[in-house]
Amino acid sequence: MSGGFDSTSIVVLADEIYLQSNGNLAPLETISAIYGNLLCDESYYIEAVTNRVSFPNNTFNLLDEAFHPDSLSEHLWQLDSPYERIHPAFSNGCGRLMTKIGGRGRLDGTGGDQVAQFNCDLSDLARRGKGLALIRECWAISGKIPNDFLRLVSGAALGATPEVLRRQYRKVRKRKEPALPI
Question: For residue 38, what pLDDT band results from cuts at 50, 70 and 90?
Answer without folding.
Answer: confident
